[in-house]
């Protein structure tokens, strides 16, 4: 009869360490991908590049591990280095962007370094297991612990880490975790490791812990550099980074570092978005707003006395909560979100439209720019077809469509996509569209597209009294495009290809990179 070998504390620890370092390694990768998507945009491309570079670097690290003579010492040194560079990755990337406006070089340099160090871990742990006489623990056992750790990280990142920690605090927290793995390994294998490990380990652990404790101050320092004005709120939600700044009585909202409104001129944007459609439609009793969690579009909609219901669909409940309860913010939207006619739905706009069976007289798409595929689908012919099904026969759809100056091709792609959308009231025909644009100082030349199932005859919308910006004369001028902003031959945006995303980035990069 064969006696099953017992699991020694050292063997158990090495397998547990495999799980822990796998969690930390994947978290660093996710943090890097998320930061690059926030700061650079185009999340699919950024996540793809980050994953590819990181995995390649891990392969290089696995190869280089063969040149490490002392496997145990090499593993401990790798953990200390990962704790330092992985932990510092969040602060470094944000500081680099805040002070230089660029993040590419530090991003990929850190990815390669962290990937190499992470790739060395499994081969070194396997060698240590063999050296301490744990041959019965097959290589599959180590890989299993590694893969389970990756699963734990992928679940914890969106569900636990992002809702509770800033990206800077998260990287420092997992840097601390790597250093604790190194410290426990030094203690457990003190018979094989010299005392020389303790001093650098203690210095780096103290520095990383201190940085973690001061992570809120680091975030504030970076925000102060990124944003011109005083940051009065900075939060990371499961969906985005929310930043609100103030200078005297001037309030600005940023989502993922992109400006959403400036209280000095937001009335220009929101009056242009809302009132042409509301003033041209024969009936405005039931209104749907997609996005617009700040309540500014709802404020303008409620200027029209015939409005009976407003359904506002915004993905992030924290945004609608802030603009429903914060006195500074509710002053800006005239407490529109607490009006009894307004119903707030916190869910994805696509999912809401796919399940909704109500009909609306006006549908207002006040959505973020189509800088990612996740957002581009809300500017697709498939999405617009669903919107058209939710529209009354004489109703109107209006969407913000970006800048016909800075992203000309993207703007006309949105118009072409709506103009190609099937018309539920006239089989075989498409929607009629009316593009227009106005000047908003915070954004520049900014465009909108209106669409209808019925032909759109030129006429002046009925405008509410006391608007601050929009006039009948301005409305007529808004429909005129210059030679360098006018219509182009473009593709229709579809979820099968998403041509809108690269056109959007190409336009803005041409002007501002």
Jot down its keywords.
elongated, 11 strands, single chain, 3 domains, 54% helix, 7-stranded mixed beta sheet, 513 residues
Query: For the report, how would you describe the main beta sheet?
Result: 7 strands, mixed
Radius of gyration: 27 Å
Number of helices: 18
CATH H-level superfamily title of the largest domain: Vaccinia Virus protein VP39
Shape: elongated
* Helical percentage: 40-55%
What does this structure look like?
This protein has 513 residues and is of the alpha/beta class. The chain folds into three domains: 9-217, Up-down Bundle (Growth Hormone, Chain: A), CATH 1.20.1250; 226-260, no CATH class; 265-512, Rossmann fold, CATH 3.40.50. 54% of the residues lie in helices and 15% in strands. It has 18 helices and eleven strands. A seven-stranded mixed sheet has the order 7-6-5-8-9-11-10. Strands 1-2-3-4 form a four-stranded antiparallel sheet. A hairpin with a 2-residue loop joins β3 and β4. α1 runs antiparallel to α4 (104-131). The longest helix is centred in the N-terminal third of the chain and has 32 residues, at 9-40. The chain is elongated and about 85 Å long. The termini are far apart.
